Amino acid sequence: xxxxxxxxxxxxxxxxxxxxxxxxxxxxxxxxxxxxxxxxxxxxxxxxxxxxxxxxxxxxxxxxxxxxxxxxxxxxxxxxxxxxxxxxxxxxxxxxxxxxxxxxxxxxxxxxxxxxxxxxxxxxxxxxxxxxxxxxxxxxxxxxxxxxxxxxxxxxxxxxxxxxxxxxxxxxxxxxxxxxxxxxxxxxxxxxxxxxxxxxxxxxxxxxxxxxxxxxxxxxxxxxxxxxxxxxxxxxxxxxxxxxxxxxxxxxxxxxxxxxxxxxxxxxxxxxxxxxxxxxxxxxxxxxxxxxxxxxxxxxxxxxxxxxxxxxxxxxxxxxxxxxxxxxxxxxxxxxxxxxxxxxxxxxxxxxxxxxxxxxxxxxxxxxxxxxxxxxxxxxxxxxxxxxxxxxxxxxxxxxxxxxxxxxxxxxxxxxxxxxxxxxxxxxxxxxxxxxxxxxxxxxxxxxxxxxxxxxxxxxxxxxxxxxxxxxxxxxxxxxxxxxxxxxxxxxxxxxxxxxxxxxxxxxxxxxxxxxxxxxxxxxxxxxxxxxxxxxxxxxxxxxxxxxxxxxxxxxxxxxxxxxxxxxxxxxxxxxxxxxxxxxxxxxxxxxxxxxxxxxxxxxxxxxxxxxxxxxxxxxxxxxxxxxxxxxxxxxxxxxxxxxxxxxxxxxxxxxx
Length: 657
What we know:
The protein is of the alpha/beta class. Helix content is 36%, strand content 22%.
């Protein structure tokens, strides 16, 4: 199954959440914005890569037998279908439902005189000073507009000359794309919003005094945003990535979105400017990006139209003011986020930063927030004289700029900042603390499936393990030494590490289940992943299925395996979970002849994770039964991927809490 087409089916499931009338109204709008944001990234990375293959006349076909041109055609056909459904949902269902609840997203022409006058004043005072008309003619080439920028193409003419003139007006990013009109103090007063682009379009003539306007139409451009970095050639990786980030915002255009009523000659002009074809253009009957609805979704006044507030719990083994190190000398602590608060992991790092007995802290940072308490704690630790080593991944897609800023702050504080291993992304989530206890130096670790990012930890499902178990902590120390030193990877007994042995050991574990089934022993595989793409792993799962191994796969996103095919995968069941929380944990359960092995991991089953990233899969020996149970129950709201359609849905009453 093609990975891009499989991903589009995942995004279809996101759209189906917005279509689900059982969802609270604002949550439906939220899923509409997520669908758009996901699609933006898909075009910026995946479609951009396919277009490059087509332009280079690559004739290679993937395992699915599709050429790049055939795949592009399939993608644009599916995207058009999905986007049409998205905008129909917004116009025909969500807008009327919002209106029933006193929330209106108005067109400028709908506003009564007093509202229109306020909007005009707002335009003159807050918007007009930020607008810059950019002429397009022989002496003014078409401006290089930024990725995801929202603009208007204006056509005008002078009173003496009939020849048309063109200009571009960029919609300023510093002003909210959705403007809330003033409302009275009464509880029943309506909430009224207008689109910034519509407001500018309404008053665009004020930018062109003395000219006769002949049309103004909004458009939005999506560009190739992938970074092209040869870190073997780059002498200064941080500086190279900064330069590449500036370039990527101006990469080749890959998609053009225009208003539904955009005239053909306007569209043709834009396509020529961006060197695109009609296949790259999408006419939208509504806002040019549903992501612009974010202010509406974020409005706290609409709490009754959202999911009930969720408060993560505190693990009872780590009560407030607990001595984390004393607890971990007695037992491991396993946390399931967001149900168990990630604040406990942050506290662990903050306590280590201030504990006089802690000598060293080592951590891998892939993604974190712009105001990260984790990094602030590391800075405090470095300022206090502790040895802090941070392996900061500068190439974490869409978080490069944030990571560069934190890398500089850490270096200024005296921390050792390392940018990983040449040619590999450091994607594992690991923390190692070296502490002088009363009896000896002891290692403490945190290992996780998710990032050190307190904000996403509230909306992503992930697992964390806190431990001082000697063999596991020594293995984590070995991983850090491999990443920071010159020695090679020696191999580990408990943990698996990519790109060194994770792929081969997972294959061995799958083959063992196959052999156990043939020998009449208990045999079962359960895996929870974000994506399943690796062809060799898929073939081994097919082999296991043909040997009567029961296989349950919970794959949130891309799944290239085809389940329930007679004689090949009839013993494989695949479900996908899309809901309130983003399913992010990776869990592997192998029945192992009745002595189950359970691993948590930072890695999906994809070639990039196995061969181009540093990843760690670590065993869970305490709490493994609880993890396996949570996976096999697979929550209660699931969607099946079956046979050719890879889609279908279970009964509507089986919803997760």
